[in-house]
Each structure stands twice: as structure tokens, then as C-alpha cells.
Amino acid sequence: MKVLVSDTLAESGIEKLRAIPDLEVEVNTSLTHEELCQAIKEYDALVIRSATKVTREVLENADRLKVVARAGIGLDNVDIDAATKRGIVVMNTPEGNVITTAEHTIAMLMALSRNIPQATQSMKAGKWEKKKFRGKEVFNKTLGIIGIGRIGRVVADRAKGLKMNVIAFDPYIGPEAINKLGVEAVTFDELLARADYITVHTPMTQETRDLINKDAFQKMKRGVFVLNCARGGIVNEQDLYQAIEEGIVAGAALDVFVEEPPKDNPLLALDKVISTPHLGASTDEAQENVALAVADQVIDYLLHGTIRNAVNAPAIDGEVLATLWPYLQLAEKLGSLVQQITPGAPEEISVEYVGEVCSAKDLKPLTISVLKGILTPMLGDQVNFVNAPVHAKERGIRVTESTREEAEDFTNLISIYMKTSKDENLVAGTLFGKKDVRLVRINDFRLEAALEGHLVLIYNIDTPGTIGAIGTCLGRHDINISMMDVGQVLERGQNIILLRTDTPVTDNVIQEVLALENVNIVQKLEL
Ligand SMILES: NC(=O)c1ccc[n+]([C@@H]2O[C@H](COP(=O)([O-])OP(=O)(O)OC[C@H]3O[C@@H](n4cnc5c(N)ncnc54)[C@H](O)[C@@H]3O)[C@@H](O)[C@H]2O)c1
Ligand SMILES: O=C(O)CC[C@@H](O)C(=O)O
């Protein structure tokens, strides 16, 4: 079998792959996209970091490819849906670079406070500018951490060592769990108002894109320092530029950018911005960790069929996988839906399997798929079929599973009830014709809708003209509705409307729909 390594990988990982007599390993880090589309035809495995773009076109040419393996976490450069459609397993190595990235954040924090990069540059230019580069102590200052997952909590630990006061905001981890880390749990606005330093450690999701925007900067202390060693775009780049110009932000440290490498990014011209070229994970130790992990995972899969850390397939036997496949999609989509409509930190998840689906020998992969669906909108690429139950456990989520063999209205049904710190909801779905995923219930409302694309969920009072008004409002913004399904609870005179639109609906349009008469709740969903 042939393995192509198309990005720079630590030598130890390449040696590990080469030590297997059944594997022929080629390293080529200079392929163009067109060359990769041609070359990929011969390979069984593709090992990448973040540079290789594994597009639909690459995957369509991948006649024998079985696995795309990422040394690192982020899979922004892989078309996972296209890989799934072609039965190609996509895996990553989510553990190996946590400490390294947290240390980089602390290095950036210190460099920012003491103007080290600027002072170095000035000295190299033959100057001695002692006054110009007077800095700030971090001792006793407040560090606000947004997203206190694996990296965020190591940053907190190291910052406490520097005797900083650490506060954190993470809507998906209960305050008790945050407080247990010796970190004060606060709301988003409180963090913005109190922090002297703000660092983001969330994944890039719909919710975190532009999380630190104009509004957020307006709520910060004057003189705040802002750090982003997570993903470009969590801190809006134009708004950051403006906030620096207005004197709100005293300095920013950026390891990641919306466009990498950045082209003519005005932030890089500002003295108050220090930057590194996505070096968060770049230490000998982390690169060794992820290279060895990725090599082990590829060997295990190619030689023994054992899947680890896959984001698109559970670790089960191929035959069982074929039978469960459509149910896995249903379970994951329903999980994603219930998470998107239920704000707050999940506390309890109950999954009920009804009818034909109960004949599956083992329902655990389906429950894991539900968990993956629930956790992915919160954690992005970090969640896979292996670690989803671990993440759920770490977050203190109670998960229960039950079965009922007798089906009522549907031959098979998966229902998920989720309770969070703020709300609770129940959703249910079925497979039509054994493979078409359909949503059939949200709480007391019965529907029949395909679960895909850009969706808008609207709760309204059942009165003539409301649906027309919603359609007109979207039409005014040139948004085409490609599907509409209405569920009713007659006795309460309430409707639920699920729309699919050809293009995503912006937050401003959502607010306009919400302002219409008889409309109570409007939620934007991506499935
Ligand atoms: N710079 C680098 O080279 C580098 C290296 C590794 C990881 N990363 C990035 O660092 C980030 C964090 O990675 P991790 O391993 O700690 O992930 P993680 O999944 O362990 O933690 C992410 C945390 O963010 C929280 N979160 C999600 N949405 C949020 C929101 N709207 N507001 C506040 N918190 C929210 C989650 O609940 C979770 O606790 C990711 O974006 C990852 O891609 C960057
Ligand atoms: O491979 C890299 O250097 C990027 C690392 C990091 O952003 C990741 O997603 O793991």
C-alpha cells in the first residue's frame, strides 16, 4: 500500500511509516493542487498538516484512497463531506499540541506586555529606545480566557503561575467545572469589561466567527491586550484594526489569520501588533507527538482496519458500518439540531431508539454519533467518534440510552431529549426508504423535513398572513426559500415553521423576521 505525505511531518513519523514493510512511503511537500489531483490516484493514504488542500476535486480523483490523516487538529483544509461520500476516513490527532499551543500563548502574552519583538527590531536597526518600549507587568492583572477547553485550561494554569487573576467564559462548561480549575466563571460581557488581557481558545464555528467584533471591543477596558492563537477570524480583523486605532486595544498578538499566509493585511503594519506565522503548534515536541500519532493511526487503519480519531466514521467492523451508516447520519444530524436549538451547557441527554433500528447489534455507535452531532457545533474539529464520549464525560453530561421495539407511526425512530443549563428540547427523526434522513418532531410539533443545508426555524402564532409576511421579508433580501414545512399544535394555536434557504440568512435578516407580528422565536441552523 502507498502512503503520500504531502506536508512537512517530523522525521520520526516518516520513519515509523517507513519501518512497515507493507507500506511504500513517498514524501512530496511541493505538489501543486493540479499535481496532487493526478498523483493521488495511486495512493491508499494521504498524510497532511494544514498546507495541503484536500478539495472535492482531489477526492474525486482518489480512486484507491482509504484515509486522509491530519497531523494536528484543524481540518479546515479537508472537504469532509466529499470524503465521507466516497467512504474515505478522515482522522486527526487532537491531543499532541495542547501544551505547546498554550505555551505559545503565554510567550505572546509576555512579548506583548514587554514589547520584545518591537524592541528587538529597533536594536537591530542600531537604536537604543529604552523609553519607547516601557512595558507592563502581568502580575495581578486579569486574564480573560474565552473557551476553557484543553488549551484554555493549560493557559489558565500557566497564567496563575504568573500570579494573574484568571476569569473565563465558556457557555458549554458549567460554572462549577470552571471554578474547580481555580478560575472564576463569568459571562461574556463581564469578561470583556474586567479583563486586562483577553485570549480566545475556542474552535472556529458559526457562533465563534467574529465573536470579538466591534460590539465586543466597545465593551472592553481601554488599554486591553488581545490575543488570538486559536483560529483566524474569531477576532474580527477589521474591527481589531479599528479598536487599535481608537486606542481601545493597546496591543494585539496574532498567531492566526483569516487568510494564511496573510496578503496585505493592514494589521501587520501596526507597531502595536505582534505576530507569528501560525506557530502555535510548532515545537519539536508537539510535531513529534502529532507525527508519531498520525503514523500509528495510519498503520493501524491500513494494516488492521482499526479506526482511531476519525471525524467521519466510528471504530466498527465494515459490515456493521454499512448497515448502520444511514442511522449514523440521522443520529448525528438530530444531535446537531437539538444542540443548535437549545442554548446553554448540556447537562442531560436521553436517546430513545424505536422500531427497526433496535435490531442493530450495538447501539453505542449511534449514541456516540448523537454526542458527536451535539458537540461539533460547540467544539468543531476537535470532536470525533472516539473522543465524543470523553468530551461529554469531562463536561459532566449525563447520557442515557433506551430502546422500544414496537414502533407506532414510523418503522424506525430516534428521539433525543436534551436538557441544558438554560433550556430543554426533544427532537425525533426517522429514515424514509431506509436512507433518507427526516426530522419528524420538535417537542409537540410534528413535521416532515429533510435535515440539510441552511435552515431557519420559526415559532409563531398561527394567524393568516404570517407565513406570507415571512416569505416577503426574505424575498426582499433576495433569499430564496427552497423548502418549507409547518408543524402545528392546534389547541395552542401555535406553529413551527422550518425553512430551507439557498443562501445563509444573515443575523440582520433574522432580526427583521423576529420583528414581524406574531413571530416569537427565530433560530438559524446549519445542517
Ligand atoms: N495556533 C495553533 O497552531 C493551534 C494549535 C492547536 C489548536 N489550535 C486551535 O485552538 C483552539 C482551541 O483548541 P482546544 O484543543 O483547546 O479545543 P477544545 O475543544 O478542547 O476547547 C475549546 C473550548 O471552546 C469552548 N467554546 C465553544 N464555543 C464557544 C463560545 N462561543 N464561547 C466560548 N467558548 C466556546 C468549548 O466549550 C471548549 O471548551 C481551536 O481553535 C484549535 O483549532 C490552534
Ligand atoms: O500543523 C500546524 O502547524 C497547525 C496546528 C494547529 O492549528 C492545529 O489545528 O492542530
TrEMBL record:
Domain of life: Bacteria
Swiss-Prot/TrEMBL keywords: Amino-acid biosynthesis, NAD, Oxidoreductase, Serine biosynthesis
Pathway participation: Amino-acid biosynthesis; L-serine biosynthesis; L-serine from 3-phospho-D-glycerate: step 1/3
Record's keyword annotation contains NAD: yes
SUPFAM superfamilies according to UniProt: ACT-like, Formate/glycerate dehydrogenase catalytic domain-like, NAD(P)-binding Rossmann-fold domains, Serine metabolism enzymes domain
GO process terms (BP): L-serine biosynthetic process
Domain (ACT) ranges: 455-527
PANTHER family from the UniProt entry: FORMATE DEHYDROGENASE 1, HYDROXYPYRUVATE REDUCTASE
Family listed: Belongs to the D-isomer specific 2-hydroxyacid dehydrogenase family.
Name assigned to this protein: D-3-phosphoglycerate dehydrogenase
Organism: Desulfacinum hydrothermale DSM 13146
Lineage, opening ranks: Bacteria, Pseudomonadati, Thermodesulfobacteriota, Syntrophobacteria, Syntrophobacterales
